[in-house]
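Lecture 7, part B: from sequences to assemblies.

Below are the input chains for today's worked example.
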Amino acid sequence: MILIEQLRNIAVFASLSDSSLHELSKHMELVKHPKGAIIIRADKVEPNFFVLEKGIARAYCNGENQEITFWFGQAGNVLFSFNSYINNRPGYENVELLENSTLIQMRLNDLFSLYEQNLEIANWGRKIAEQELIATEKRLIDRAFKGAAERYQEFITQSPELNKRVALKHIASYLGVTQVTLSRIRAACK
Amino acid sequence: MILIEQLRNIAVFASLSDSSLHELSKHMELVKHPKGAIIIRADKVEPNFFVLEKGIARAYCNGENQEITFWFGQAGNVLFSFNSYINNRPGYENVELLENSTLIQMRLNDLFSLYEQNLEIANWGRKIAEQELIATEKRLIDRAFKGAAERYQEFITQSPELNKRVALKHIASYLGVTQVTLSRIRAACK
DNA sequence: TCATTTTTTTAACATTTGTAAAATGTTGCC
DNA sequence: GGCAACATTTTACAAATGTTAAAAAAATGA
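Predicted structure of the full complex, as structure tokens:
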């Protein structure tokens, strides 16, 4: 159980009334994990939904000889195994904390029950999925229209915090290039 | 106004009760457009939400010297301007019908009112966004892990109908390659 | 059917990006 | 400090894809 005042500071909860926030908070708890912790594992149904209260995280898939980072989370972002959340099936992604972090944690089953009971919370969940959807689609389109150098410039402009705190190898795969290519891009614009 | 029996044949409505379906159907109408019609235009807020009842469609963005197709819709798919639907702002995409098509059309404002009134419909809207989200994210990940040839093989396996009915130039940009590259891939696996 | 337009393929060449391996830089810890 | 582990850059070369232009094939409409 978490205090409503604490949730009010987190942007993702801004649209909710006190009463809905209270309903949610009953099922939430605060957990801490150290840097390097893997909080979601591929091939396992993850029963929890998280909000990153403090810290940063990355989601990645394991390929044959490489790891691809395809998502970064910062304080205030929601964090869940897409396939567990949406289809109740094992996910394809691992989520690793890149710093010592604090997470708000809630059972998916509790969240799903609230979706079936509370109209405001159901619409809140809808908007979360919609915002993630539009961000993901924009990234897909950017891959087609923008070169790797331009995507990198945009990344450091729009996510200066991540740029400071995340290893370049993770940024490289997030941008869809190898680390060598990213090094070349960085060398070219010095 | 559309008959409930007609909607029952469309997979996306399967989870809804008769009563919710009736609420939706009050605001729906059936419209026909010819092949080549542009039903959603970039830089314009599109006030309607559509379900493709018959036909196929593609969403594309205009670049400097190229058009990038990033989405295909078939019978049963929902179809809307993401930015209009989600942020009430002009979109970035055009949607063109690739065949003579029949569409179920509904005002976004009517849909949004139902989201605020009807729990079942709000959760239905949530699931639509979630399904689109997971499909889009999988495509983004596939771009990183799979070569263009493999993505093409998967496309023709998973979307044989689109493969038959859509021009190769559109498939090429959907897969993230030029038409020349797709031609080479097709020549190599003959 | 024929002519016209559009789509698809092919070719030659340029560019980008990838791969592998070595060199350099950074960090944390004893 | 100095070692060990890890991250980043650099180099040389290979592979994939892009660009441009032209030819071939297919679709369209009178």
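Note for the exam: Residues 147-148, 177-178, 180-181, 184 of chain A lie near DNA strand C (CB under 10 Å from a C1'). Keep this in mind when comparing with the next example.
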